[in-house]
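Give me the 3D structure for Phage integrase family protein.
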Amino acid sequence: MDLERLSAGLSESWRCLIRDWDRCLRSTGRPETTRYNYLLAVVQLGKYVVANSGGYAAQDPAAVSRADVESFQAWMIETRSASTALNKHKFLQQFFHWLAEDEQAVERSPVDGVRPPQPPTKLIPVISTDDTTRLLESCKGSGFMNLRDQAMIRLYCNTGARLSEVANLRIDDIDWTTDSPSEALGCAPLNQIQRSLNLSFKQ
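Predicted structure for Phage integrase family protein (203 residues):
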């Protein structure tokens, strides 16, 4: 990651603190992709302040105000999305917390009191009954592949199981006395999460 290139256009004070924070993140073992996302949020805030606010904040991150953060956050929502703005909010929280607690460069984080964005809830499309019927029709037959595909489709439709749950399901996981498959989620033998899914054998 080229920090000098990433922070080009910012004042030396901004760039110096970005380098220091990167060193702090590296010392805690944060992977490069995580560090990049954290640092990018700070760089974007800095460049936004330079372009829109000016003043002392354009020269020194310690002068960034709550209003600067709110304006930047609103701009992120307008130009990207509420989800992206929420991520930036979290990253900036970490940066200014470090600036206040470790560097003692500010008495209070300007992110304090700034409400995080609320991304809209996205409804996941559900396959229609007609589409399900057509899908089952395409699997008609008495061969192994046909019966297997029909069983998998019916299991998805009847239980709402996840892809990985059905893929990892074994015969021993099915409790034939209750018509319910009990699936072990996770790989660690001592850290498995058990849940039961009710099966219906109605046609």
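Helices lie at 3-6, 12-27, 32-52, 66-79, 82-101, 129-137, 144-159, 163-167. Let me know if you want a second pass.
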